[in-house]
Specification:
Length: about 375
């Protein structure tokens, strides 16, 4: 472990050196606007900095693969939780060879229950123990922030995962979901997906910024397009891909209890690459099947004289927004997804603007967050 920490300290110093060299190059380049000779000096300095950076990367990449894999394994074993887990991310940021080895060592959330990279947010959670998260709401800015719980209490700061902003377009309500809490726009590189509702706010469509499987086509409707004109960058997808729908059933009789929900999600057929170089690389080759979820029916409590759900201490405030989702009979085993008693997603209130969110396989953090966002706001004739 001492060897891993020593190498990480060298990585940090090297990164600082790269930043200083880039800053120097940028300063010389700025004076090039006024002096041609300064421009030549700036270009030569930038070229020298790039060469030095390339030489530094080659030096890190020259480590024996067996030694490098052992280093990353020790660092990964010592970073069970955040914030220590940032050392694992640092290993993946050194160079391409380090990134490939790190991705091969770090197992997906399905197997470990750990969220490490941004790609983990779109991978299913573990089957046995749910991943515990919480959502903070800012009513003034209509923004919502998803955090990974670091302790068993509701008081920890958590590890930021995703952010969402609610917006209105005509009679429709929508949510933009981003990896960056300060950049909540569809044109951002941090954009990961969106939600869109009908004019009643009782039917929602979930869109992903990435195609869920090979050959998937982006939605052709104007409201779901990501950009109004041309694609701004080859690295930024120019469309939204529908991955699910959720609806709240009407409650015309005004019966007490939680809202009745029905959710249909795209569930891909994934081919896992078991190669040692990249064990996390997976590819969905077909549209897969539809995962159908519904809210778990509450039970009447004779002593309290009300309908109740057992949230196992994770929900402390009664609210119509609270819910638990289970698989329907058609989606339950033998398909391996779950049964009609296993809670795949639960969401509930613990404070004025604080809510807990616990999810497990086959849902990802992104899907669970999108579903929970639909619970905010008034549902006409559904409550």
């Amino acid at each position: 472990m001492a060897l891993g920490k020593a190498l990480l300290s060298r990585v940090s110093s090297s990164s600082a050196g790269w930043q200083r060299r880039d800053s120097e190059a940028g300063g010389v380049g700025g004076r090039a606007e006024d002096m041609e000779e300064g421009g030549r000096d700036g270009a030569s300095t930038a070229a020298a900095a790039a060469a030095a950076q390339e030489e530094e990367e080659e030096r890190w990449a020259s480590i024996l693969p067996e030694l490098l894999r052992e280093i990353v394994r020790r660092v990964e074993a010592g970073g069970e939780r955040w914030p220590m887990r940032k050392d694992v991310v640092s290993c993946a940021c050194v160079c391409r060879s380090w990134r490939e080895v790190t991705r091969g060592v770090v197992r997906p959330p399905l197997e470990t229950g750990k969220i490490t990279f941004p790609s983990s947010l779109k991978q299913p959670g573990p089957a046995d123990t749910p991943i515990r998260c919480f959502i903070k709401r800012n009513k003034m800015s209509s923004t919502f922030y998803l955090y990974l719980s670091l302790t068993q209490t509701f008081m920890d700061k958590g590890k930021f995962l995703l952010a969402a902003r609610r917006f209105r377009r005509g009679a429709h309500i929508g949510y933009i979901i981003s990896l960056d809490a300060d950049d909540l726009s569809q044109g951002s590189n941090a954009y990961v997906g969106k939600l869109r509702s009908d004019f009643l706010g009782s039917n929602f469509t979930i869109y992903d910024s990435r195609p869920p499987y090979d050959g998937a086509k982006a939605s052709s409707s104007r409201a779901s397009r990501r950009f109004a004109s041309k694609q701004i960058s080859p690295q930024v997808p120019a469309g939204n891909f529908e991955i699910g729908r959720l609806s709240y059933k009407f409650n015309l009789l005004k019966s007490r209890g939680p809202r009745r929900m029905h959710c249909s999600l795209y569930h891909p057929v994934v081919v896992q690459d078991s190669s040692e170089e990249d064990m996390l690389k997976s590819k969905a080759h077909s549209p897969g099947m539809s995962l159908v979820l519904q809210n778990k029916a509450p039970r009447w409590h004779e002593h309290l004289q009300c309908w109740c759900l057992n949230f196992h201490g994770r929900v402390t405030v009664a609210s119509v927004k609270n819910f638990q989702l289970v698989a329907t009979a058609d989606s339950s085993r033998p398909g391996g997804i779950g049964d009609d008693e296993t809670v795949l997603l639960q969401f509930g209130k613990v404070g004025n603007d604080m809510f807990t969110m616990d999810y497990r396989q086959p849902l990802s953090a992104f899907q669970a967050f999108a579903i929970c966002l639909t619970s905010f706001g008034t549902k006409f004739a559904c409550e």
